[in-house]
Design brief:
Layout lengths: L2 H7 L1 H20 L4 H39 L16 H54 L7 H23 L9 E4 H11 L1 H6 L3 E4 L5 E4 L1 H17 L8 E8 L3 E8 L19 H4 L9 H12 L2 E7 L3 E9 L9
Parallel strand pairs: 2-4
Antiparallel strand pairs: 1-3, 4-5, 5-7, 6-7
Helix pairs in contact: 2-3, 4-5, 5-10, 6-8, 8-10
């Protein structure tokens, strides 16, 4: 709060005070009061008006300076009232009460919005589970009647299942902490499950699935990690090159502090102009615009889930050479967040 701006705000008070000061001075002269007394009275009036302004300024200046400072220092500015005492001047009380009412109304609206979002999320999850049951039944029925299940039908069912899973995990990803359980899990079991789930696609696309020594244990949630790996494997299959030795290779780099799971393929790769955006929401890049059925959501969800699980996910690539995805886990039974 600047004193110059304060004086501008008090301009009417200052003008009226000056007018009253002049009138008193003239009145004393008209009554032929002794000049020395007029001087004393004039000085007293001037000092009184000045003190009133200064006292009022410093009371308000401290309060408003603290208010603005606390707003700048808070991540959530609407909590500023929690850091301030109720002011002792009337204008400040009006402002404080107004901010309190606004803050209360905002929090009530946020609570209602959160309840609506939670209701929507629960409905979507329920709907997805209801859809997955008949889909699983359909897949099982068709698998028992192989003659009815051609490659095109299998691909359609696989895509449908993957899209439903993607919706489910996307909805849950905003509140993943309520759904996951961090514990020690065996990487080899998770990789085995991922390989089985994608076996048909790997065989149809003639892609070798190479797994090196991955007998390591990490602290994570197996369900979330399987989903993350499925998104990465799906991308590797989707963006394979038309060569005879296509492969997806999975291996581990280990040190005392971290375990890094690496998923490598020799597909089309990612252009250098796209590499920084591959984890962005709905980003499909130049490869995704060449006719592949891409939503641009898989890696976005994977990144979001890794962040919530405390893992670090990175990607590097060279066009028409390789793509490597690194998922790094802390070698600690406590919840360490890697950045």
């Amino acid at each position: 709060m600047k004193f110059k701006n304060y004086l501008k705000d008090k301009l009417y008070f200052i003008i009226i005070s000056l007018i009253s000061y002049i009138l008193i001075f003239l009145l004393l002269l008209s009554f032929k009061v002794d000049k020395s007394l007029i001087v004393v009275v004039s000085i007293l009036l001037l000092v009184t008006y000045s003190l009133l302004l200064l006292i009022d300024y410093f009371r308000k200046q401290k309060y408003y300076t603290d208010l603005l400072k606390n707003i700048d220092n808070l991540d959530k500015a609407y909590l500023v009232l929690e850091t301030l005492n109720k002011p002792e001047f009337y204008e400040g009380e009006l402002l404080y009460n107004a901010l309190y009412a606004i803050n209360k109304s905002m929090l009530e609206n946020i609570r209602l919005q959160e309840e609506q979002i939670l209701d929507y999320k629960e409905y979507v999850e329920m709907w997805i589970h209801e859809v997955k049951r008949p889909l699983a039944s359909l897949v099982l029925t068709l698998n028992n009647k192989q003659k009815l299940l051609d490659r095109k039908t299998k691909n359609i069912l696989k895509q449908l299942e993957d899209r439903i899973d993607q919706v489910l995990y996307y909805v849950r990803s905003e509140n993943a902490e309520k759904d996951y359980l961090i514990k020690e899990v065996d990487l080899s079991k998770i990789i085995k499950n991922v390989g089985i789930k994608n076996m048909d696609d790997l065989l149809d696309n003639k892609i070798s699935f190479k797994v090196d020594d991955i007998n390591y244990k990490v602290y994570t949630d197996s369900k979330w990690l399987e989903f993350i790996l499925n998104q990465i494997i799906n991308n590797s299959i989707k963006y394979k090159r038309n060569i005879s030795n296509s492969y997806i290779k999975i291996y581990v780099e280990y040190n005392a502090k971290t375990t890094t799971l690496i998923i490598e393929d020799n597909g089309v790769g990612i252009p250098s102009t796209d590499i920084k955006q591959v984890f962005d929401r709905t980003f499909t890049g130049s490869n995704g615009r060449k006719g592949t059925n891409s939503t641009g959501m898989g890696l976005y969800i994977a990144k979001n889930l890794c962040k919530k699980l405390g893992h670090k996910i990175e990607i590097e690539s060279l066009e028409n050479k390789y793509t490597r995805v690194y998922i790094t886990f802390a070698n600690n039974k406590y919840y360490d967040v890697l950045k």
